Automatic annotation (TrEMBL):
Signal peptide: none annotated. PANTHER family: ZN(II)2CYS6 TRANSCRIPTION FACTOR (EUROFUNG) (PTHR47431:SF4), ZN(II)2CYS6 TRANSCRIPTION FACTOR (EUROFUNG)-RELATED (PTHR47431). This is Zn(2)-C6 fungal-type domain-containing protein. It comes from Fusarium anthophilum. SMART domains: GAL4. One of its GO terms (biological process) is DNA-templated transcription.
């Protein structure tokens, strides 16, 4: 355990030269030129040390930045973060529509942040921060404004400020991870210095400190969507190992580690379940069968509603046993959106674990029937209040949006379309086709699922701002519809389906165009031709 937790991620050493960092390869850090630059006759440069002060050129540049920031200082307080939404519309006139894959759609067009006023003219890409200065930390504010509601497991902002000042917990590593993600949303760039700060803070935590699970999980998500997949897996594996070792999945953990604070008790419950959801999202996005947390028997209570969590008024929790026996309740018992998302992920997780790497006819039939039963049960037992994703105030229930989108991911047994080969979301086609009667039933299910996805995408809410993991779900639906257009649909049905594909891709292009900018994923991973 000690070895697992204390080992730092060393594949991106701060001593690596700029050329090796750019290529994301290991660097032996030999000076004046590393071995790789020597072999390829490249210019080898290293980032100047931040510990030894600034040279004259750097000082001059810093003074220039300070002057520019002082001239452009805004009068409004740092507590208000404004964004400018660019609505460019959707151009569907061209028959050839180029789409983006789930591994790059998260970089498409979210609202572009306007400059945020900074109280002191300092470089915001610096890893130094104090827990007492959270109220003035623009990057932490950016994290809470843009990302927190997508994966709401960290302490609510006001509570984090209070706990940090009270020194009850050492949240330095978690705050460092928040600052990295806030920086990505704020500048649309990865920061080596902030990344190194996260690793430094994690390495200083004790092996028994549960905060590192929160920090590693957040850092892993940032790495994953910035294409550092191996490092993301390393952080995720370490977070899971620590969580299981500490028995975070058990009901007693949250109470023990909450130290009588209801918000922190709820926070630990959310941390375990978000770890479970994130690992399932990795497996679904990459098409892998690795799913450690699914094989752990959890007794952790279910999270409450996000609004209750943010308010600090935490109700008595419901249990997983309550959720699994909800069909026997004499009257409708409404669980939280987080709980229904957990239920949807558990349905999908069972399908993932049932799926062999290459499915035969028998496997396909069993998987389809099991998945249809699980997903139908989830939908049929959904209370009336939880069926609409669009809330009465016109905002989206983000966790229910994720749950509905996941439930409607089509497990396609339509004929394999060659275009699917270029998508990282596509799966290998089955070696055998299922029986004709099963194909007819499941084809209806697929098209119904795709239609449900399109209705979610067409909700009148902009900007289209969701967790990046939803993009792979949308891509799978679009790929299934492409196959239906190629091999099955005709006449009016074909025309409608083609319009639906244009809508889906147009939505991803128009509304998620800035996400590619933010998370730096390649644009060449998927091309659709309708």
């Amino acid at each position: 355990m000690e070895r697992l937790v204390s080992t730092r991620v060393n594949t991106r050493s701060s001593l690596a030269c700029l050329e090796c960092r750019k290529k994301h390869v290991k660097c032996d850090a030999h000076q004046p030129r590393c071995s790789r630059c020597m072999a390829y006759d490249k210019t080898c440069q290293y980032t100047a040390s931040r510990r030894g002060g600034l040279d004259r050129a750097a000082l001059a540049e810093r003074r220039r930045r300070m002057a520019n920031k002082a001239d452009g200082q805004l009068d409004n307080s740092l507590s208000e973060i404004s964004v400018a939404v660019s609505d460019e519309g959707i151009n569907l006139g061209d028959e050839s529509v180029t789409g983006t894959d789930c591994m790059e759609v998260f970089h498409a067009s979210l609202p572009v942040p306007t400059p945020v006023p900074v109280p002191a003219p300092e470089n915001r890409d610096t890893p130094q921060f104090s827990q007492g200065g959270l109220t003035d930390d623009a990057l932490v504010k950016s994290y809470y404004a843009d990302f927190h509601h997508l994966h709401p497991y960290a302490p609510p902002y006001k509570h984090l400020v209070h706990l940090s000042q009270a020194s009850t917990f050492n949240f330095s590593a978690l705050i460092a991870a928040m600052r990295l993600i806030g920086h990505i949303y704020d500048t649309h760039q990865w920061s080596e210095s902030l990344s190194s700060a996260v690793e430094d803070q994690i390495s200083q935590l004790k092996s028994s400190d549960a905060v590192q699970v929160q920090a590693r999980l957040l850092y892993s998500i940032a790495l994953f969507w910035y294409t550092f997949k191996a490092e993301a897996k390393e952080q995720m594996d370490a977070a899971i190992d620590v969580a299981v070792k500490l028995e975070m999945h058990k009901q007693e953990f949250a109470t023990t580690w909450g130290f009588g604070d209801p918000v922190m008790v709820e926070c630990w419950r959310r941390t375990w379940w978000m770890l479970f959801i994130a690992e399932a999202s990795y497996a679904g996005t990459l098409g892998t069968m690795n799913f450690k947390t699914l094989h752990v028997e959890p007794t952790a209570d279910l999270p409450c509603e996000d609004s209750e969590y943010e308010s600090g008024i935490i109700p008595a929790p419901k249990t997983l046993q309550d959720f699994d026996s909800r069909e026997f309740d004499s009257e409708d018992v409404v669980f939280s959106s987080f709980a229904y998302l957990i239920g949807a992920v558990r349905c999908a997780a069972q399908v993932i674990c049932m799926s062999p790497k290459r499915a035969t006819r028998e496997h396909s039939e069993a998987i389809i029937q099991s998945a249809d039963s699980a997903f139908d049960a989830w939908l049929l037992l959904l209370p009336k209040d939880k069926k609409p994703v669009l809330k009465s105030d016109g905002t989206i229930d983000e966790l229910m949006f994720q749950a509905h989108l996941l439930i409607h991911v089509p497990l396609s047994d339509l004929r394999f379309n060659p275009v699917e080969k270029v998508s990282s979301c596509a799966r290998e086609p089955p070696a055998d086709t299922p029986k004709p009667d099963l194909i007819n039933v499941h084809t209806t299910r697929i098209l119904k699922s795709v239609n449900a996805q399109i209705q979610l995408l067409a909700l009148p809410v902009r900007p289209f701002h969701h967790t990046p993991f939803t993009t792979c779900m949308v891509s799978e639906g679009t790929l299934a519809l492409l196959s239906a257009c190629t091999y099955m649909l005709k006449d009016q049905a074909l025309a409608v389906a083609r319009d639906q594909i244009r809508l889906t891709i147009g939505c991803l292009k128009a509304d998620l165009a800035g996400l590619v900018e933010k998370w730096g994923v390649r644009r060449d991973q998927l091309r659709f031709r309708v």
